[in-house]
What we know:
With 193 residues, the protein is α/β, with parallel strands linked by helices. It has a single domain (5-189), classed as Spore Coat Polysaccharide Biosynthesis Protein SpsA, Chain A, CATH 3.90.550. The chain is 30% helix and 19% strand. The protein has six helices and eight strands; from the N terminus they run E-H-E-E-H-E-H-E-E-E-H-H-E-H. It has helices spanning 33-44, 77-89, 109-116, 139-146, 155-162, 181-189, and strands spanning 5-10, 49-53, 66-69, 96-101, 122-127, 130-131, 135-138, 165-168. Strands 1, 2, 3, 4, 5, 6, 7 and 8 form an eight-stranded mixed β-sheet that branches. Strand 5 and strand 6 (130-131) form a beta hairpin.
Amino acid sequence: MAARFAGLVLAGGAGQRYGKPKALALLPDGRSFLAACVELLVEAGAAPIVATLPPDMAPLESPAFSTLHLPVSGLAMFDSLRLGLKQLCDEQTWERVVVLPVDHPLVSAASVRALAAVEAPAALPLYAGRHGHPVMLARATAEHIVAGELPGPTLRTVLRTVGSVDVAVDDPGVCANCNTPEALAAAWNNRHI
């Protein structure tokens, strides 16, 4: 039986390079980055799903996910990660969590499922020799981050500490960092390569 896994969308940044919060940025098909990220996590089977949001963003309500408004603007990504994981750790129903930055809305649900199926402290997708996102964390790894036992200061540091494994995927979306409108346009045009 497949492990139950949660989803965490890191969408708490102001999106200065994008010109607005990336959670609200739109794909060419009209969906917001946040909606696309939540949809792919739902399709992959993630539950529960939490999305971190900027402190001043209007509340978003959806049966598909819950939100966590960050306490201050400009919070480091690792601190946002810790807060999102803390909220998820209140739920006992999952064994792994897939952490998806909101500026990676073109990831496939198949890649998420492949990461969630791995039994390891952490896992990263690998496409054409390049690491990408999302990242899978085992529950124990997530709990150690929340407890401050894996203090970072970055997720990359944690992954090196716990020993992440690579998961080969046939998905250019894992490497498509849509952090500017130009990057989104290029990734959108190349998403089926």
